[in-house]
Design a protein that fits this description.
This protein is mainly beta and 246 residues long. It is 0% helix and 53% strand. The chain binds (2S)-amino(carbamoylamino)ethanoic acid and manganese (II) ion. One of its GO terms (molecular function) is ureidoglycine aminohydrolase activity.
């Protein structure tokens, strides 16, 4: 029998590892017939919110952005999406970015559809209008090698433009691939494993990680990862970018 008093999840001042075994569901107004798990939030010290939405029969996600922008990524399943009057079909690997001050509707969700969501308070930049609504498909985005290492590939899902103050990237590591150095940086991360497994080092502590796990890394949380197992390890992650730190 499994021992229910054990978990791989940890929540610390500079980082958290959240495995699905600890999920307790939330209700979010406007997100109807959906199971919602708020995985990363201000309540743990983060400056982003990372949410996982799983549709039940009749699942529907509607709302409006105010001070926060929102990024939706379809992990599996599909739905019809509308944002600021623009419509598109979302299926596995497709995404929708909704800037501040817009409405959104994700409807006709196939039961079981899973959607990852990042919210961040938008920091305006003088001289630049806030970004537009963006629909995209990760399958159509190039994944060049990362820092010249053919075992690592990085896809940048949002435009690299000063109007954006957040990035969302997909990082793929062949088995045995690893970050080339221990990163120590001011940017914060929220991430979700889409595939595979490996070992993450967070502030000199070592964690086995696999598909379905999430990680929060506060600014300056030291980080390094190596992929293990028979298939590439893939994670999608958030990063704050393009703004002066004070
Ligand atoms: O973009 C990044 O900072 C990325 N290389 N960090 C990470 O994967 N932990
Ligand atoms: Mn990093």
């Amino acid at each position: 029998m499994e021992i229910s008093a054990l978990t791989r999840s940890v929540v610390k001042g500079s980082h958290a590892v959240i495995s699905p075994d600890g999920y307790v569901n939330s209700n979010v107004p406007g997100w109807t017939n959906c199971t919602v798990n708020v995985i990363i939030s201000e309540a743990m010290g983060a400056q982003l919110t990372q949410t996982l939405i799983t549709a039940r029969e009749g699942g529907r996600i509607t709302g409006a952005t105010h001070t926060s922008q929102v990024f939706f990524y379809v992990i599996n399943g599909g739905c019809h999406a509308t944002a600021d009057g623009k419509k598109n079909l979302l299926s596995t690997g497709r995404f929708l970015y909704v800037p501040i001050g817009k409405t959104y509707q994700l409807e006709n969700m196939v039961p079981g559809t899973q959607i990852l969501c990042f919210h961040k308070v938008y920091e305006k930049l003088e001289g630049y209008a806030p970004p537009p609504v963006i629909f995209g498909d990760a399958a159509q985005i190039e994944g060049p090698t990362y820092l010249g290492d053919p075992a690592l590939r990085l896809q940048v899902l949002l435009p690299d433009h000063p109007a954006f103050d957040m990035a969302v990237n997909i990082f793929t590591y062949d088995s045995g691939g690893h970050l080339p150095f221990v990163e120590t940086h001011i940017m914060e991360h929220g991430l979700l494993y889409l595939q595979g497994q490996g070992v993450y080092m967070l502030d000199q502590e070592w964690y086995p990680i696999k598909k379905g796990d999430s990680i929060w890394m506060a600014p300056y949380c030291q980080q390094w990862f190596t992929a293990m197992g028979k298939e590439p390890a893939v994670y999608i992650y958030y990063k704050n970018v393009n703004r002066f730190p004070f």
